[in-house]
Amino acid sequence: MRRGAFATRIGAIATAVGSAVGLGNIWRFPYEAGTNGGGAFLMIYLFFIAIVGIPLLCAEFAMGRDSRANAVKTFASLTGRKSMGAVGVMGIVASVLILSFYSVVAGWTIEYTIISFSRGFKSTDVETLHSLFNSSIASPAKSLFFTWLFLLINYFALARGVRKGIESLSNLLMPVLFLILIVFCVNSLMLPDAGRGLRFLFAVDFSQVSVTTVLSAMGQAFFSLSIGLGCMLTYGSYFKDSTIIPRTAVSIASLDTLVAILSGIIIFPAVFSFGMSPTAGPTLVFETLPAIFGAMAGGRILAPLFFILLFIASLTSTISMSEISISFCTEQFGWSRKKASAAVIGLSMALGGLCALSFGPLANFKICSLTVFNLFDFASSNVLLPLGGVCASLIAGWAYPRSRLAAQLSLTGNKLFSVIRFLLRYIIPLCILLIFINSL
Ligand code: TRP
């Protein structure tokens, strides 16, 4: 079967960046850093990006481009065992769980785009913002509506083949998002309590670190880089042979991390200056940003622009998540793209509905003391993605022939290759398993 290939190196990088940069950086990173003690979390997160994230990103790209197939088929063919396709299936399950809760938050960005266009954000008062959030997000009808709206937009992008259009639009607009983030950073740095916010984000206090902190930082690294479920593997299968994988992986990881840190620099000074709490959890960014926009000169214009861009960044991330299931269904079952998209999005609408309601009517419905939303978030990011990472690194390190991996990475005969392979064979699996065992 002929498969599409990305036209240029920039195209390949930009699309993978489109997958990596999304709500994970701007919404999830600040809330995870906030609940896990700030600076120490950031340090551990950076450690995981460098030691686990970049090598795994390289491995996923390499295996995908080598096999030019979906994740299930790739794992089965590289190991010579059909049963190893289960690793890919686990990735598909994880991607549907992520798509479900991610769409709820993406729905919030649609709703906040509308609010910022219509009445705008005027107040910086914590109580007012809290009730704004509650009246929009916690309202079951609105929350369901916007979650489903977001998923339907995905369906049209995926099934109608306008995906490429959205991705090029995103390539065009992401530099704009980046510029806006810089403007917001400068604005936040001038807030009265900016110093406290920065200290929270950058001052490392290891006495605050628990196993949960380490587990969460690892989960965030996987989530933010889109690794562990075969998503980047699928994108790797569309890479051109001339794309230099390690360089691409480092560029993606650097850009992705930069956006997360910028987001932290925007949020935490505001959290302290407006008297909020950094430990608010998933709602943190959506209560902090309106306060920032309310107090900022030009906020009335920048707020809608920001939310539109965040929405587009979310869309390119969810497109990448859906792609793994869709490429599986079309290649394995011979389904049409339309049918595969309908199946994936339909399932996500059902599960996403439960996630949407877990801020309202289902707030007290808990499994293992977590709401459906938090359970999906935790189970996918902190369990399934790292577990997928263990399998992917073991397969890349042990089953995948050394020479083929080296050739894919353009590192034949290079010392750096031995380092990457050593990390994949021993350090990454051991590191992840140790953290798992400890957190049990
Ligand atoms: N990385 C994206 C973000 O930060 C989310 C994402 C897209 C993802 N594809 C993924 C997370 C695959 C895990 C696996 O918003």
Explain how this protein is built:
The structure is a single chain. This protein is mostly helical. The chain has a single domain, classed as Orthogonal Bundle (Hydantoin permease), CATH 1.10.4160. Strands 1-2 form a two-stranded antiparallel ribbon. Helix 5 crosses helix 7. The longest helix is centred in the last third of the chain and has 35 residues. It is globular. The mean pLDDT is 93. The site of tryptophan (TRP) has 16 residues, from helix 1, helix 2, helix 10 and helix 14.
Short description:
This protein has 440 residues and is mainly alpha-helical.
What is the CATH fold-level name? Answer: Hydantoin permease
* Major β-sheet profile: 2 strands, antiparallel
Which ions, cofactors or small ligands are bound in this entry? tryptophan
The CATH architecture can be given as Orthogonal Bundle
Specify the structural class: mainly alpha
Radius of gyration: 21 Å
Identify the CATH class.
Mainly Alpha
CATH superfamily: Hydantoin permease
Sheet-strand content, in percent, reads: under 5%
Shape: globular
Helix fraction? over 70%
Quaternary organization: single chain
Spatial sequence of strands, sheet with the most strands:
1-2
Number of extended strands = 2
